[in-house]
Structures are given as C-alpha cells and as structure tokens.
Amino acid sequence: MFIGVKTKILLTVLAIVLLFTIFSLVYFPSLQGRALHANYKSEVQNQAKTIALGASIALSEQNFKGLKTAMDFVKENEELRFVTLIQKDTIWNADSTSYKVEDNAMVTFPEANTYSSDLVSSDSLIITKAPFRTSIMDGEIMLGVSTNSINSRQKKIRMTALLISGAIFLVGMLIGLWLSRNISHPVQALRKAAKRVGEGDLTSEVKSSSKDEIGELAIAFNNMVKDIKKLSDLTLVQEKEKQQLLATQNEALEKQVEERTAELRHSLENLQAAQAQLVQAEKMASLGELTAGIAHEIQNPLNFVNNFSEVNTELLAELEEELKNGNQEEVKQLIQDLKDNETKIVHHGKRADTIVKNMLQHSRTSSTGVKEPTDINALADEYLRLAYHGLRAKNKSFNATLKTDYDETVGKINILSQDVGRVILNLLTNAFYVVNEKREMNIEGYEPTVSVSTKKMNDIVEIRVNDNGNGIPQKVLDKIFQPFFTTKPTGQGTGLGLSLSYDIITKGHGGELKAETKEGEGTTFVIQLPYKS
User: Fold this and answer.
1) Beta strands at 401-405 and 449-457: parallel, antiparallel or unpaired
2) How many C-alpha atoms does 111 have within 13 Å on its Cβ side?
3) Phi and psi of 437, rounded to 5°?
4) Is 418:367 a contact under the CB 8 Å cutoff?
C-alpha cells in the first residue's frame, strides 16, 4: 500500500499531538485530583486531631463545656457531615480472666443521628479518627466530611485540561498541515518530474523556490537531468555509428556463414556417404560370414538335384529299352519313378532358390519398408544353421553344440524379415565368435554351446540368443550398443553390428534389445518384438 509523504507527516504529527493530548487530558487531571484529595484528607485529619486535643484537655479538667467548645470548632465547616466522641469501655467477664472493648458514642453532632465506629471513607465522604487518652476515660474523635468541594474542583480541572488538550490538538494539526504542505508539495513535484524522466521526457524540470535541502535537491535533480540528456544525445550518436558498423559486420558474417554452411553441408554429405558405406560394409561383412554357410546349405539341395538327374538319365535309358520290348507294365513303373524324381528335383531346386533369394535380400542396401507376416521360428532356425556352417567353413576344427527351444504358439508376426534376420545373424555370429574364443583358451571340460529360443508372452514375442562364452565386462556393458564400439581386435569388427541391430529393433519395430551377462559364464541377448509392430 502506497503512503505519500504528506500523509506520513500528518500521521507523525497526529501521533505526537495525540500523546500530548492524552497526557494533558488524562494524566495531568488525575495527578492534580490525587494531590487535592490527599491535601484535603490531611486537613480533615488535622481538624480531628485538634478536636481530640481539646476534648482531652476538657475531660482532664472535667470541663464539659470545654468539650462542647472543642467540637464546635468544626461546626462552621460547610462540608461537615458529623462529629462524634466515642468512649472506649473495657468490660471484664465474671472471672476477670478476659475483657472486651466496646465503643459508645457520648456526644454526636448532629444530635439526632447516631454513627457506627465502623464507618470507612468513600468517594463522597472522608472518615478520619483521632484517639485521645485521659485519667477519666479513653476514646477517639470520629469526623465525617463531604468531598463535594473536592469533586467540584476536580471537574473544573478536567474541563480546563479538556480545553487545553483541544487547543494543543488544534495547534498541532495546523502545524502538521503547514509542515506537510511545505514538505510534500516540493517532494511530489520532484516525484512527478522523476517519473516523466523515467518515461523518457528529458526536458522535465522541478520548479522550487525553497532555500532548504529540498530546494537544493531540486537544483541537483535538474542538473542531473541535463547531464543525462547530454549523455543520451551522445549515446544516440554512438548507437547510430555502432548500428552502421554492426550492419557491415553482419553482412560480412552472413557471407562467412553461407560459406561455412556450404562447407558443412558438403562435409555432412561426405559423412552420410561414408556412414552409408560403413553400414553397407557391415552388411557385406555379415554376408561374408554367411557365404560359407550358404554354400554348405546350397550344396545339399544341389547334390540331390545332381543325383536324381543322373538316376533319371539311367531310367530314361531303361524306358527306351522297355518300349522297344513292348513291356507296358515296366514302362508305366519307370514313368512313375521319373515323375517322383522330378518332384524331388523341383523341391530341392526351390530350396536352393530360397537360399539364394535370402542371400540377395540380405545384401540389399536398404529394406523395402513393408512389413510382412514372418515365421519367427523358421527365420531364427535358418540363420542359426547358416551362421554355424559359415564359421565351420572358415575353421574346420570348430564344433559347437546347438540348442533350440521354439515356442510353436508364436506363429507369424509382421516384421521386416530382412532387417530382423540381419539382427539374429549378427547376434549368432557374435555368439559363435565368443564361444570359439573361449574354446581356444583350452579350458578343461569346456564345451561351446549356442542356443536360440522363442517365447510368446501376451502381446510380445521374445527371441533369446545365449552363449556360454566369457561374458561381457560390466564396465563396457553400457557401451555395446554405441556406434563404432567393439571389443574385437582391430580389423575384425566395424563396431556397427550391435548399433544397427539396436536401431532396427527399437526404432524400426518399436521393440527392445538388451543384454544379460555374467562374467565367465556367458551372455544372453534378448529381442522383444510386439505382435502389432
């Protein structure tokens, strides 16, 4: 909440005036009233003592008229309400073992009234007692005086205090108004000028004729505004020069940026081309791993084709002989054998054709991007045999136990078979590599084993590739899916196999690829693919 200078001055003066007003209106009359009351009570007490002294003298002389004269001393007091001489009588019991003192009023004024010795002072009456003792009797003078005169004087004091307080309050407020006007007006003018300067008006001035500190502040403010205006004009000139220089530098910088952008674009194109070559090299490397396996797989159907072709040649010769002899039953049997052999030749020819097509598909630079229903079990089993025979072709001494556990309920799922096959091949190639590496360590009782399994879990198909090699050290486990990271010796790996596999599964199919490993015991790579990928 904003409170102006004028309001603050008025509030300050009001607080001071109120303090003085409260003092003069409350404390001063109260102090005067207590003093008047104390003096009046002391005066009444002295009167009672005077009467007691006169009564004591009169009773000692047995002058009862003197006793009356002593009491007549206060009868002229208009505030007197009563005066009583009380006799103190001592009364013993029958055995004279104890006594009690009784008060008896002997003389009272006014005579028609009686007053108890137990009366005490109140706001309207002051009761005082003055004891005396003589040879005749003991007693005391009890005097009752009204406080009307004191109360009247206190009222006058309060009225006087009220008038004085009102005068103080009025004068104080006038002084406050005068101070607030003479202080706040110049300050408000200075505030308005400062606000205009803050809004950009550097022609504002404060007009002040006062010769005090506020006037000096106004002069200093005007001088400051003039200095700011000069500095602003100078800054504008410098800013224009800077803008011109900046425009020139921007043009030069834009040219440099365009040149550098062209260089970067060219470098990026070269980098993308190199990356594509590396990816293709990785594909070709995996294809090279397959070559021997593919040759082994093709050899079997080709052997069947050759063998059945030779058999058919012999059967044709026999058929020609039997036709000449006219043996129809034998001719029919030979024709049926030829048909059976031709069926087998076609079957094994298609098998060879499928292997060649898969090899061509694997060697393509990019996939078609169209997902097709694919038998995961057949795909995994085919690449398991191709990878194994590929390594066997390069290393005749290598042997490994192959284990499979395919879930027949998996069925077919929509995937890019070319890409997923490349991932499975990459994982199997790595598995055979690590078990062969451990085999060459000549560990007693060690048997290289690679297993492939599939499992259906709700809406996910899981493919697990396990080996019993040396495992992956924990310090490099987090890096295995990074591009160009490899644990193989220089020249034996590009470092892109697992990186590409990770991208194919996670980005291309919305799945997950992870590794579970234990040093010295082996590694399991887990592929999880959604049914609706």
Assistant:
1) parallel
2) 3
3) -60, -40
4) yes
